[in-house]
Amino acid sequence: LPGLHVVAIAFALEVSVGKTNTVMALNNSDVLLPCTFTTCIGFQDLVFTWYFNSTELIYHGKIKSKASEPFLVGRNPRVEFVGSTTGKDNNISIVLKNVEFSDAGKYTCHVKNPKEKNAQHNATIFLTVVQKMVETDNTVTLIIVGVVGGLIGLLILFMLIKRVVLFIIKKTQDGKKECLVSSSGNDNTENGLAGSKAEQKAPPKA
């Protein structure tokens, strides 16, 4: 049934490593490998495990309930648990200490919740180890932004000049129309046309 399917999704266990699944670390530094999990019905005797390249177990922990913090079952000596499960987020992140180039690879955070009929879920994060952090050269970006900004500025200036020129032309044309009306009236008067002053002159005396 569709309704039951929606409920099943709502109660599903989910594991996340954040917005991005890639991490870069400097050689001989410590690096945080983030991981959190969510479950709508809670958890009991939950088991979480971190694997390196899918096979090597580097951290194994258990959590009795929401009221207790995880306890260690087994770990690699260079791995330290830095999460907490009694707070708002069920954080099961770890820190890998003194990373080496050989530590680069895939790290999988795996969670199993017996309270959800042993529902299991995992998330993967990829670690890259570098000798030194390369500063991003923003020169090209700044040039592009400057050129685009300049073009927009010129466009606005052009539009303003265009409006001023059109305004001046309109005013000039209005002035010419007034002159034409005025000169037309003068012509009528001089030529003695209807409505002119010529009609208003008294007839010459005999």
UniProtKB/TrEMBL annotation:
It comes from the Eukaryota. One of its GO terms (molecular function) is transmembrane transporter binding. InterPro entries: Ig-like_dom, Ig-like_dom_sf, Ig-like_fold, Ig_sub, Ig_V-set, Myelin_P0-rel. Residues 2-126 form the Ig-like domain. The chain crosses the membrane at residues 140-161. Residues 178-206 are annotated as: Disordered. Keywords: Disulfide bond, Glycoprotein, Immunoglobulin domain, Membrane, Signal, Transmembrane, Transmembrane helix. Its main location: membrane. The keyword Chaperone does not apply. SUPFAM superfamilies: Immunoglobulin. GO terms for cellular component: voltage-gated sodium channel complex. It is found in: Membrane. Residues 181-191 have a biased composition (Polar residues). GO terms for biological process: cardiac muscle cell action potential involved in contraction; regulation of ventricular cardiac muscle cell membrane repolarization. It is a single-pass type I membrane protein. Residues 1-18 form the signal peptide. This is SCN4B protein.
